[in-house]
User: What shape does this take?
Amino acid sequence: MGVWDTAIRKISDPVVRELASRGQIRSFAKGTVFLRESDPGDGLFVLLHGKVKVYVSDEQGREMILNHYGPGDYVGEMAFDGKGRSASVRALEPTVCAFVSREALFEAIRANPEIVLHLFANAIARMRNMTIEVKNLALLDVYGRVARLLLSLPTVLGKDGRAWTVEPLTQQEIANRVGASRDMVSRILKELRAGGYIAVREKRITILRRPPARW
Assistant: This one.
């Protein structure tokens, strides 16, 4: 049994595991954009290894990050309707996926109609989260968006006993996620550090005390 067959067998969600088993293994180097906004939707990708970001961008190259995904997640499910991609996906590190073509997806659905319910439920959950993000972009000021992002980032317990963000984040990446300029984010982080609310080490952040609701 190959290493990626083993990775597929370890996927906890049975529906995602079934989809991955019907896919073709594809590898992408760090930085590769393997799904592009508006390209034809010809299938979805189940992540077996690595990490990706989903984002939209404009003609000037400015980006808005929609989410990050890792092993056991899938991206490109909008291929279900065969229309253009609604966002782009970039590999943040060497990434391996199982590519499930539209034809393979339809074959899986014919064999197990509950896959449709799973895809719809996942799409609804992602749309709910997107609605919340759009609401926050519209109604929260930049500080509020930064504070909310910092409080929502996944963390891991460090040797110092503090909960540090799992992934390193540059100021530009934070700016992309909250829809603000890097300079504005830099000023906010500097003030939060000076106020003793956060600490930053090797681009990872820990919350020392909950940031105030307003600055």
In short: Residues 3-138 form a domain with the Jelly Rolls fold (CATH 2.60.120.10).
